[in-house]
Structures are given as C-alpha cells and as structure tokens.
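Entry 14. Two folds queued back to back today. First construct below, sequence then structure tokens.
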Amino acid sequence: MAGALGNEDCGKLYMKRRRLLQFIVGLTLIGGTTAYAAAYRQVEIVAPEAEQTVHDNLGRMRVEVTVAPSLARGHQLKLALDGEPLDREWRSSSIWLEGIDRGEHTLRAFVIDGSGKVVATSAPVTFYMWQASRLFPTRR
C-alpha cells in the first residue's frame, strides 16, 4: 500500500511533532520573542546552590548565573528575591547582593531584552541566610 507508514515511521513522526510543540509552548511560557528565547539554552543559578546556608551577619552574598550562550547585546540579567524583582539589572553573571535578612529565601534569574521584556528564566533556587543572634552568640 503506497504512502502507508509503518509503526516505526509513525513513532518518529510523532516524536518530531512532539518536540516541535514543546519548543513552541516553551517559547510561549518564557514570553520571549522567537529569536531570543530560542537562543538561550541555559539560564541557571549556580551560586548559591540549592538549599545552601549562607553565613553573613550583614546579609551579603554572591550570586553566580550561568547563561549559555552569553548575553546578547542589549540583554541584561535581572534577579527576583522571594518573588520580588530587584531594582536593578546586571551585565555581569557574578552579582553581589547586600541586606538580605536571615531566613529562607528563593532566588530566580531572568534575561531581559532592551525593552525590559523577559526572554529567558532560570529555575528558582532556595537558600538560607544565617546571621548571628545576640540571644545565641555561640550558635553556628
């Protein structure tokens, strides 16, 4: 029978269509333009690590973000701490934050284009800020 597909061919066609649909849906979920969203295959917070405890009495910490490929011209990183976007953007993937209160926090990184539109995002990372207490000065 001419034109009929065997089981193996049907399976390959199904997988091709499924990958294409996941790609299109992924672009929609990111909210980015097709050209930019497809370009960033990795946006990942590598420091602090998930579930890491950061020890700093002043609430300072270094954030490292891996972006692949590197940021396009006009694109910047923006961070959100506990769901609230921070007030500035960065071109560097190594970022210092200050004034973080003790306790559990969630951090997320976004790549934004020149108009401020989010074109890629990282998975959230939960970390803990530890600060000494006057009530328990010897506790570590």
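Second construct, same run, same settings:
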Amino acid sequence: MTSTNDRLFDAVRAGDLIGVKSALADGASANAKADGVSALHEAAMGDSVAVCKCLVEAGANLKAKDRGEAGVLHFAADGGNAAVCQYLLQQPGIFKGKDNAARNPLHWAAGEGNLEACRLFLKDKRIRRDDDNAGRTALDWAAMSGNAAICQLLLDEGFDPWHQDHAVADMAVHRALEAGAADAVRVLLNDVDARTIFDGDMKDLLHVWCSRTRDHQRETLKVLLAAGFDVTQKYKDKDAAIHLASKYGNSGAIAALLANGVDIDVRGNRRRTALMIAVEADRVDCVTDLLEAGASHGLVDETGLTARDIAEMRTDEKMVALLRSHEARETLRATLAAPAFAGSGLK
C-alpha cells in the first residue's frame, strides 16, 4: 500500500496541487524525505509555485538540505523556473548558502544554463559570488554549460574572465572551449588577445582545442581563427595542430583542420606525419580518417620508419592489418589507373 508520504512525493513530482493537499490532509509530513531529498526540494525543481507555497504554508523546512548539503534554492536553480526561484527567494529564512562543494545557488543556475535564475540570484546580496572548493566561479560554471548569454551577464556583473581555478589553472574560456561552445568562447574572448591565454600546463588555446574540444570542433576553430590563431603554426617541439589532434585522438579536430587547408602530410617532431603519430598513439579512428582523407602511408620519419613500421614495432596487429588493407586498396587503385592497364581493354 502506498504511504501518504509516497503519495505526497508522487503529487509533488507531478505538480499536482490537489494531490499534494490531499496527501497532507491525510497525514503526510510537509518535511518528508525520500533518498535524503525533501518534498520541498522536489517541488523547487518543478514549475509550480502553488505546490511550493502549499508545502511552505504546511510547515516545510526552508533550511532543509540534501545529503550533499544542497538547499531548496539549489534545487530551484537546477530546475530553472524563474517564478519558483523568485517565490523561494522571498521566503524569510530560506537557506542561501553553499553545498558541500562550496557551490551556491548561483553556481548551480549558471551550470545548468538557467539565465533568468541567474538574474534573480545576482540581485540577492546574500548569495555571495565566491569560488567553489575547486576555485571555480559562476562564470566558470556558465562556460561549462556553454551558455553565452549567462557568460555575458556575469561579465557585465564584473566577474573576472582571467580568473584561474585551483585545480588546473583553467579560465572560463578553457571550460567553454572544452564544452565546444563557440558562442561562449567568442563572448569570453571579446576584447582579449586570445594568444596570450594559457592553461596550467602553458598550453595555448589552439593546443587546448586539439586536446579537449570533442564537439563542434569546426565552429570553435572558426572562433580561434578569427582571434588570430594560425593552424599551420608549429610549437617548440615542431608539432603543429594536426599532429596534436592526432596524438589526442580528436578526429573532429582533424577534419576541421583539413577543411581549413592544413596539409595532411605536414612534418612534425622527428619528421613524423599526423598518420605516424596517430599510429604510435593507437588512435584507430584517427588513422582510419586520415587514410580516407588521403594521408600518405609510404612516407618515412627521420629514422626511416613508415606508419606501418611503427605499428609493427608496437606489435599492434589491428593497426598493422588496417594499414596493410589500405595499402592493398591503394595499390589496386593505382594499378587500375595505370596507362598500360587502362589501354588493355579490361574492365
């Protein structure tokens, strides 16, 4: 048999005001919890101010926290309904502090991409603009969500785009780039020399793009090109972007670079091509894509090794088979295209 508290939670999750009132009238507790979450937490994630108001008037604890120390406002920030957020903000005694990761409701709203909730929380002086335990600000969380409008809002409110977190010394633009959020990257780079920005490992944004951007690579690359980056530039170790993308297994980045005219067989460190580097790094998808895009498998590095030689030295049977298969297809194609064969009358 379903308990009255279970009925209450079912009604709250459904936004069913009549069901909530009925469960409360039958003895359900306004402070009931399920898996450490109160009924008011659940209501805050929804769209019904009336349900929240009903629970508050029935005595729901406005300072209730879940197992991660998140309050009701955190859950409202997650849900993103502006009316619910506004109602709860107006309640005396509502918990406006931080969860156990030192994230406040503004962090949550920014991380979920909820613009109107961010606007409301920014107006409340009791919701502080501190860093979380990892040193990330609301701007960092907005960048991770890829929401350009929230990034712009927070910049307008004075958040520092140069702020670096504690863990890896990333800035908001690194987070946006990792999220593949081209518009957010564009906003964060406005009036900034993008080529002066480095992460904690002293990698520039193009390097970060090669290693971390796994979605929307073409769109984000356009932003970096507009910011002055040169996809043919080589780093101190003589590797260029296409070599880095191959090393990190970023097929989307390779495709974006090739679409922007990068030489598929350009030489890098040890005179190795992107194909050789992908083979050495065991990036099967990149090797397949590079071969299909026309990468030469017959070139040798500074020690005289071809891509297949590198695979054989690594005793990588799968990679060797892939390269041999491609070589066989290329040999057959060349044979069929040869003048002597073409003039033989054979089809």
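Quick look at the second one. The chain is about 50% helix and 0% strand. The two ends are 77 Å apart (CA to CA).
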